[in-house]
Task: inverse folding
């Protein structure tokens, strides 16, 4: 049962990072940065646990589930919805995102969300790592 919950937490982190890339695709930098910071903090909390094996399961599920989440939620229309939500004037004028917008999604926003996912995994493992007491080694 714990393993299923760990897998579910990892997949929720994947979905959160997909939402980050969709929010960035909308084209408002302030919204993207704030939403990315909030999702990063929530992702670290979801991935964090003292048990190394459980944290590893969560992290692997998050990383392996990210691309399927991107394609799955993309097929469901998440990117178009977020673009229309954040850019209604652009959608009224041009009808929706064009090839330049897709270029930004593929080469800027998706890699940025992937980097945030790796940052969440590394931060969760760094927080859970045991600290050494004593004098620092030089």
Result:
């Amino acid at each position: 049962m714990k393993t299923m919950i760990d897998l579910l937490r990892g997949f929720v982190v994947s979905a959160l990072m997909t939402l980050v890339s969709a929010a960035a695709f909308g084209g408002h930098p302030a919204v993207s940065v704030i939403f990315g910071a909030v999702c990063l903090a929530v992702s670290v909390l979801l991935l964090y646990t003292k048990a190394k094996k459980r944290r590893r399961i969560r992290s692997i599920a998050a990383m392996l589930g990210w691309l399927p989440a991107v394609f799955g939620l993309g097929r469901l229309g998440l990117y178009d919805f977020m673009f229309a939500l954040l850019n209604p004037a652009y959608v009224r004028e041009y009808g929706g995102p064009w090839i330049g917008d897709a270029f930004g999604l593929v080469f800027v926003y998706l890699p940025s969300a992937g980097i945030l996912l790796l940052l969440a995994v590394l931060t969760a493992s760094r927080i859970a790592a045991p600290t050494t007491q004593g004098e620092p080694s030089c």
About this structure: The chain has one domain: 2-128. Residues 2-128 form one domain. The chain has a mean pLDDT of 92. The helical segments are 2-25, 29-47, 52-75, 78-86, 88-94, 99-128.
